[in-house]
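Loading example: each entry is read as three labelled lines plus one structure line.
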Amino acid sequence: MNYQDSDNGWLLRVRNLTKIYGDPISNSIQYTGPAHGTNICPETDAIVACAEINFDLYPGEVLGVVGESGSGKSTLVQLLYFDQMATGGEVHFKAIDEGKTNIVTLSNQRKRQARSSLMGMVYQNPRDGLNFNFSAGGNIAEKLLMAGNFHVGRIRERASFLLEKTEVPVKRMDNTPATFSGGMQQRVQISKAIANNPPLLFLDEVTSGLDVSVQAKVLDLIRHLQRELGVSMIVVSHDLAVIRMLTDRTLVMKNGRIVESGLTDQILQDPQHPYTQLLVSSLL
Amino acid sequence: MITESKFQQTYNFGFIDESTKKEIRRKLLKAVAIPGYQVPYSSPEMPIARGWGTGGLHATLSLIGPEDIFKIIDQGSDASVNACNLRDFVKRMTNCRTTFDTAEATLIQTRHRKPEEILTDKQIIVFQVPQPEPLRSVERYEFKTRLMHAEADYAKMWVSLYESYVKFGAIMQGAGYPVRVNGRYIMTPSPIPRWDVPNLSMAPCLHVFSAGREKRLHCVPPFTKVEPLEFEDVKFHVEDFGAITCAASGGDKAFMDEIYESETSRKFVMNDSNFMDKVRSGTRPPQRLFTNPTV
Amino acid sequence: MGYVAIKGGEDAIANANELVEFYRIKARTKPIELAQILGQFRLLIDKIMGEGSLYAPEHAALVLKQNEGDVFESAFMLRAYRATLQRRYYSEKLATREMFVRRRISSAFREIPGGQILGPTRDYSQRLLDARLVTETMGDIDAFLGEFEAKLDRSSLHGVPTLSKVIDLLQSEGLLREVEADTNRRVVDITREAVKFPAPRSAALQMLARAETGGIMSLAYSAQRGFGSAHATVGELRVGEVPVRVRDARGRVRLIGRIRVTEAEMISKIKTQKKDPVPYLSLGYGLCFGQNETKAISMGILDRTMRSGGDAPCQTQEFVLYHTEGIESYGFTNHLKLPHYVTFQSGLNNLRQAVERKEKNRGNLGFGSKPAPQKINQPAS
């Protein structure tokens, strides 16, 4: 499959994206996957975290990625956000070189530019996304500074606007997120992620560490922001309720592979793959 | 048993052996070619303690020739004890002429000041540097700071300046204010006061910064842009001495030392001792002054 | 104008130097002969040669005398002297299997081929003051030496064999493995190029061999107490003389002398892998000039912890190597005595302005005021 196959208006196009840890052999991919019930190569112990990942993401679309832990879903977004180096495959992003460049091969400097201005990431653990040595405002400022905004007044305006938007008391802007509740830390992470209005946002188990009551509020906020900003999102979760609430389309992953994909409603109503059926039945 | 002659020895011109000098000169050329970039170098031990100007001596002694006229200052003063000791060492190892006169010197070694008097394209100034890494305050590991420089990843540095403003209402960095050189590398100008920082930019002389203990040297070549890190609305300021005049020379508009002769009497004198002598004798030399922005 | 003392610095230095000389000899006792220092301060000489990075006992004795016994200053002076010497050769690899062994122990086995040789050690002595030394005379020394030498069987001295190594036992059984992370085998000369991190093991070992004994002991001790993991066993500790050889211009290997060294081979387990879940053994290596067992053992522990991964101080190469470099840490710690009034003034200026701002802003909260809301799709420019 070539990335130019058909231009159906995609924003992000992923082809054959693969990540393997350890020493792979040529058969590592063949020996792993859902058919084998494992992502560990039996010969070398190499871990095929994800392989043969293909999908398109469209502007304004929310794509869910669901699967159990170890299915490769978090690795997938970490590859797209350049937290990890892909072992192989292609990723094209319309916002970078009009989609002509395979962005996994960009220089570190350009990857950093892309991360700061064109993408946002919200991690399950706020410590991965926030620097607790800096204030909440400083964390947001980091994104704005990297995008070339060097006006303290405007930085603070923007930061307080974002915090207000994400329902964090603005008077706490100059405190470190270490003193915030879990829900508030996630809100600060979201503010930081959307600071430069990126066209693409990754959410990795953002509500998994939160109390149920707080979860609902944060999900509400995300849905609201998505509509207002029209941003494309990839939402990773093990929780089908989150997927149902947020996403239009869903990929189901198991043992590092996509086993099923389709409209979220369809998948929930009529799951095809036995693994998806299991997931759905446990939800109901 | 050992005879005394075993311990007698003669020294090479400039103390350092020629092959090491050559190595240091090559590294200096590299540093000139990549303004603001920290070049690792061998940094042999000197008979002066680490942290007391060994890096400055490496640069000085590999640059100095028999015709050079050498000046050395510490905290602005030719008479400071460590300056005297290093001057004596350089003189013994080179037999060069030494001077206190900033204008006469061809090679100036300094700790924590650039002279007030404008240096010319015939002069080289060598700064002693305790910590060459401007990012050390935000990243303690060198293998990481090297990557950050390579990729111009200076976000953390900027956020720390932002945080300083938020906490204190100003960027509180005193001496050693971080600068960007030639639009690329962030560099420490060594712990010179902010007063001296604007004088590094587009200056006719060559600035060599040498950190012996840390084994790194970097340069600001002549006529190279040096910009203190500042925001559009939170600007870099030099130390403000207001209308203070020097108690010894009557002059103003120079970096001042605060002197206490008793618990109650505070007065100010010019820090640059040679500059003050010249002001006192009525021949104030040309000087480049920076005016603080009014924001 | 008492402050503007143009000649003040030079005079002060001259006076200080004179006072140092006065304090060195003011007790008006018999000058210490270098032979005495060499003869009776053997371990001190060894320590200074190690940290000074120069095998020159007589020079070490001289600097000790010159510096009134200050170990830091003496090691520093020896190191500075070393930098002035021409480097004609790099030696061939030292072969410690060829060591003329004075002392050699293993804690890993009860009996080892060639036997445990306790040699000269205070390990099993009671640390009580020996009042006899207060009145020790040349006669006492002669008497002891006469008796001691009479006991020696001189004919057996020629037959002292070189000893195989304890690690050979483990090696032949296939129980020793390389530490996984050890891949950079480039041999650098740390006195000719600045170390960059991550540093190859050759650079790390050189830096440890020159490191300040107390510094590496602290970090090695921290590893044993649980800040990092090191459950090390002394595989073998040997002290003795080894031949030093160089290759001359014609390519012939020439013996140029013998030096006394202490070598420690510390054994610990390596991390197991799924493929091969055997907790094999690995070596941490220590070697230093003279008899300095504390240093060799500490070095052996740190050589291993620095390659084990993890972020405890003893596992962090940059942390261990930079901060145990005695000459540099000694110099920089003492440089704080230099005047810093320019930097201090610069900070003071900021501080006073901060106080002023506080007065002005009394009643306000913080420096950032809450600005008016902004439209959401307007990017921060």
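Chain A touches chain C through 25 residues (CB under 8 Å).
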